[in-house]
Amino acid sequence: MKKTIIITGGAGFIGSHVARLFVTKYADYNIINLDALTYAGNLENLRDIESASNYHFEKANILDTAALENIFLKYCPDGIIHLAAESHVDRSILSPLDFVYTNVIGTVNLLNAAKTLWKNNFEGKLFYHVSTDEVYGALGDTGLFTEQTKYDPHSPYSASKAASDHFVRAYHDTYGLPVVLSNCSNNYGPFHFPEKLIPLFINNIINKKPLPVYGDGLYTRDWLFVKDHATAIDLVFHKGKTGGTYNIGGFNEWKNIDLVKLLCKQMDEKLGNAPGTSDVLITYVKDRPGHDRRYAIDATKINKELGWKPSVTFEEGLSQTIDWYLQNEEWLKHVTSGAYQRYYVKMYGG
Length: 350
Ligand code: NAD
Ligand code: DAU
Hints:
Layout: E1 4-8, H1 13-25, E2 30-35, E3 55-59, H2 65-75, E4 79-82, H3 89-94, H4 96-118, E5 126-132, H5 156-175, E6 179-184, E7 186-188, H6 197-206, E8 211-214, E9 220-225, H7 226-239, E10 245-248, E11 253-255, H8 256-271, E12 282-285, H9 300-306, H10 314-327, H11 329-335, H12 339-348
Parallel strand pairs: 1-2, 1-4, 2-3, 4-5, 5-6, 6-10, 7-9, 8-12
Antiparallel strand pairs: 9-11
Helix pairs in contact: 1-7, 2-4, 4-5, 6-8, 8-10
The structure holds nicotinamide-adenine-dinucleotide and 2'deoxy-thymidine-5'-diphospho-alpha-D-glucose.
């Protein structure tokens, strides 16, 4: 069946993979990428699909309600896949209000735009909100986040995402808006902005710069290859239960320091360095305030209900990711200039 879908944040890391998957897999769908092109949005992420006849780009800020109204009236979407967000925890500690504006108010603006356009005729319509496992807070040494885990966000980023999740569910319960949500663990892969751990460290190894490991380096994250997140989003969008929530994760926990050592080893092999060359760059630095100790997702529900599971091992996915960065140094150079340089100096001092 033909569909028109607005993907918000389609010029970002995960959004660009979702846009690519939908544009290439569903030739009869119209895919509209609605993105403000903040520092994290980059149309270079979408070069290979930008001239596809079923792909359209609209530069708009989700805080601009008039622009949203015009775009919604212009395309009359059946579905919204909402990924636009401020997404970096460290930036949320430096400027929390930006996260309230985009992640909370921006999400409510989109809910209103969908509700207004669809009036009370919700047949065949869906608002899909893409969220994070960080809303659940931090785990101790054992246990996993399930869909029933109580929300307990600690950073301004996760608090803003938690608030947006609550608004999405409130619009379902109050107005009957058909919604679905997913809460995913840490993604990695091509087009990841080099402020996040893996791409930052790949870039720093290439440039022989220190690798700033926060605190004792024993924080744990559950890593998922971004293309596997995109296939999960495709399944949840098409087959997920309306009103439901799906946790998405890699069944793949790594302590930061172990991950960094694996990354150094793979980089040294690929760069033809002597073993141990990049390990020398590892530098322990001041911890992130409010740093969550451990995240780990129980993805049993999406596996059992929708048959989803990750397609690559972490070693394979990481190797593919490093290869992509080594083959796309121009992309890296473009995104690490200008405003990003100023942010880097503020965060890491040089
Ligand atoms: P990103 O920072 O790479 O991209 C965000 C995109 O949103 C950019 O293209 C940016 O231009 C756009 N954007 C930001 N503010 C906007 C605004 N006001 N109006 C319109 N567009 C705006 O983010 P990402 O890592 O791709 O994350 C995408 C979504 O997935 C976010 O909602 C994030 O919370 C969620 N998520 C991310 C991860 C992860 O590991 N990266 C994991 C789970 C969930
Ligand atoms: O869990 C999902 C979340 O994963 C997403 O919702 C966020 O959008 C995404 O940014 C990511 O959040 P994290 O804070 O876990 O990712 P980040 O890459 O910033 O950090 C990963 C771990 O590495 C974390 O424990 C902090 C640590 N770290 C990070 C950076 C940038 C360092 O030790 N040094 C660093 O320089």
